[in-house]
Amino acid sequence: MRLVLVGPPGAGKGTQAGMIAEKLNVPAIATGDIFRANVAGETELGLEAKRYMDAGDLVPDEVTNKMVADRLNEADAQEGFLLDGYPRNTGQAQFLDETLGSHGIDVALELRVPDEEVVRRLSGRRTSTVTGKVYHVEFNPPPEDEREHVKQRDDDHPEAIQNRLKVFHDQTAPILDYYSQQGKLQGVDAVGELDSVTKRIMKALKLD
Ligand code: ADP
Ligand code: AMP
């Protein structure tokens, strides 16, 4: 299964990706995580990406597309994959189709969340520096042994959140039409308890 997760920042893509990928037995590949690992490792790619990420802008396509093509060439992605946070504009969606050849992806799963819920989720998001797990101060608080290790992401401040929402509506939302025209779009209401959302996703993917 070649699956892409599409949704605004804070839709719960990262939160749900691990469970879906495990069920499908494919790697979960999150472009944001790869960029953040490069920023932390102070690589050339990380230094280039950081200024875009901090502002909430997209990293330029030529950088992002090459990084994804390299990752999809790795052995574990040959039988399928779950992409979280890529593609994020129609140019990237076209590049992905060209990279994959004949039949492209199988499903684009849209996680639907209104903007005001996005703001609530991103303002309270915390990530463990030890396990990388994603929590929320109110909706999914970290367990006691994680509490001293969680930190807020550099781009989860109000200006970057507003810009990321704008970027989503202006640049990413058009890929929903792109996949809909290919007959590959599945939409899920991603508001509600984490477990309820997981169940809706599994049902949409016929994995329940
Ligand atoms: P994305 O990867 O789409 O940007 P995340 O998975 O990082 O989103 O989730 C963003 C924030 O919202 C996190 O703090 C997460 O704990 C929280 N969250 C995820 N799903 C839900 C949900 N169904 N209800 C409430 N909060 C959620
Ligand atoms: P995310 O972790 O998915 O919220 O991504 C964090 C940031 O990484 C984004 O705001 C962008 O700056 C960058 N990024 C992640 N994926 C992409 C992509 N597909 N294209 C361009 N930039 C990306």
Descriptive account of the structure:
- Strand 5 and strand 6 form a beta hairpin.
- This protein has 208 residues and is an alpha/beta fold.
- The model has no long low-confidence stretch (mean pLDDT 97).
- The strands form 2 sheets. The chain has a 5-stranded parallel β-sheet, sandwiched between helices. Strands 6-5-7 form a 3-stranded antiparallel β-sheet.
- The chain binds adenosine-5'-diphosphate and adenosine monophosphate.
- Adenosine-5'-diphosphate (ADP) binds next to helix 1, strand 6 and helix 9.
Percentage of helical residues?
A: 40-55%
Spatial shape: globular
Beta-sheet strand percentage?
15-25%
Widest sheet: strand ordering: 2-3-1-4-8
Summing up helix and strand content along with how strands pair, one would put the structural category as alpha/beta
> What is the radius of gyration?
16 Å
Number of helical elements: 9
The poorly predicted ranges are: none
| Small molecules (ligands, ions, cofactors) in the structure | adenosine-5'-diphosphate, adenosine monophosphate
Could you give the count of β-strands? Answer: 8
First CA to last CA: what distance? 15 Å
Order of helices and strands: EHEHHHEHEHEEEHHEH
Mean pLDDT: 97
Largest sheet, strands/sense/barrel = 5 strands, parallel
